[in-house]
Structures are given as structure tokens and as C-alpha cells.
Amino acid sequence: MSLQDLKWSRRCRGELAVYQPSWDSNVLSAVSTRQGGASSLPYDTLNLAYHVQDEAEKVEQNRERLTRALGLASAPWVTLNQVHGTKVHWVSKDNIKAFQGQNMNELVEGDALATEDSDLPLVVFGADCALLLYYDAIGGRIGAVHAGWRGTVAGLPSIMVEEFIERGSKVQNIQVAIGPAIGPCCYPVGTEVVNAFHQRWSFADQLFTSEEKECNEKSKNMVRFDLIKAIELQLMEYKLKPEHISTLNMCTSCAEEDFFSYRRDQGRTGRHGALIMLTRP
Ligand SMILES: [Zn+2]
Question: Where do the domains of the chain lie, and which CATH numbers do they carry?
Fold first, then answer.
């Protein structure tokens, strides 16, 4: 069986617009937009995260709307208390309780979820950090990752690949769909970020630019960081096929109608989400 090249597309699912990777029907996957929800400013409108001071009932309604739009049964989502770490949590029907609920303090800490079980909707949240979805159609494994610069420099995108391989995946069968993230147009960084990448990754030279771009006056003349490229190059260093990596290529800060952006909105904003679920055992 040969795998098709991976692509993203924008689709209407019920009342909501979502972005979806071109995967087969054994997996359901989508990135939400901020449109079509119940939340008010500054969480307008489809905020999916409880921890951002939005009203809990609104968040609940928003999660239900997305769940319905995607045609999921209303099983609770599998989520994490995201902490910019590097641990991958394997979830099964036996340990799922620790990953469910509204209270962040009661959720397991981490930034990467994986499973081999069907009907467990893994969800990671973001507002500038990259959201990555992993799928091995042959091995029957999926994963979801939240990666900002800290998780990326520490190797989280490739740690998930290693975990898949440890469980029996072949690297040539692993596909990664890289969702929205803040782009190099809008992501000025300090020397700690530049130095951290140079210390760890041989391709660090390719990740930073100080060339002018019209897109954002504020970050003109500053060193700007390409988070998506850092993830792509890391995955290719771990031998993923380029045609099995697909980037949505939308900057969360520029795409104001579709995505929340922590930087653009100076910290007071909602979270969009990336969801993936195996639909068959
Ligand atoms: Zn931008």
C-alpha cells in the first residue's frame, strides 16, 4: 500500500469551518477556527480552552459545537495541562480518566498525546504555538502535539516519531500534518531562542531572518524565527518523507479571522484546537 501525498484543505463541517488533512476515513482529524462559537470578546468566538478565564459554560458549548460539526459521539475529549514539555502520553481506554475534565490542575501535564485505540479524540490547543497531528495508517497509531519554540528545540516533534517507531511504526509510514502557528512574519525572538537552536540543531542557520517584511511593522529589523521550518527540518532529519509532511501555512497572528494569537492579542485571547481520532480499531 502506498500512501498518498498529504495536503490540507478548508472545509465546512456542519455549521463550522475547519482545516483538515487529506487522510483516509479510518481517522478523523481537524483544526478548528475561531468562528461559529458562543464566547464573547476577547475569546470570540469558538474558544476551546477552559484555562483562559472564559466562561466555562461557553467553552463547553463551543466544544459541543465542534464535536457535533465533526460528527463525533459526545465522548469527552482527551486533553492535557499543556506545559511546554517533551513527554509523550500514550492514552488507552484504561487510563483515559486522567486526561478528561475541565480542571487544568487535575489533568496530566504534557504536550503530546498518542493512542492506538479507536474513539478517543485527542485534542491539543494553541494560540501561536504549532499544533501537529501524526498518523501511521499502516500501524494504526495517531498523535497530537503542541509545540512552541521550547518544545521544538528540545525535540518534541521527533520524540513523537521515535515513540511511534518504538511501538512498531515504520518511519516511511508516518505522516505529520502541521497546523497553524505563528509565522516568521510575526515572531521576533531574543538571543536565548537563537542560541538554544544553534546549540542543538545543525540546521539552525536556516531558521532566523532579520530581513524586512511588509507584513508586520512591529517586528521590522528584529530577528524573527521560523517555527514551522524548525519543525519540518527536524522531522526530515528523522527521515520522514517530505511528501508525508504537510504544513497548513497560515500565520496565527496574520490570519485574525480564523485563529487566536497570543502575541497579536497580547495574552488575552482564546485557543483553537487540533483534534485527531481513530475511527476504527
Ligand atoms: Zn504573520
Answer: 8-182+240-278 (3.60.140.10)
Residues with CB under 5 A from ligand 1 (ion): 183, 185-186, 251, 253-254
| Confidence class for position 86, pLDDT limits 50, 70, 90 | very high
Spacing, Cα 226 to ligand 1 middle (Å): 11
Q: Give the 3-state secondary structure of residue 260.
A: coil
43 Cα to the center of ligand 1, angstroms: 20
Question: Is the pLDDT score of 215 beyond 70?
Answer: no
Q: What is the largest CA-CA distance in the chain?
A: 52
Q: Is the dihedral of CA 9, 77, 163, 208 positive or negative?
A: positive
Q: How far is the CA of 81 from the centre of ligand 1 (A)?
A: 27
Secondary structure tally for the chain: helices H, strands E: 5, 13
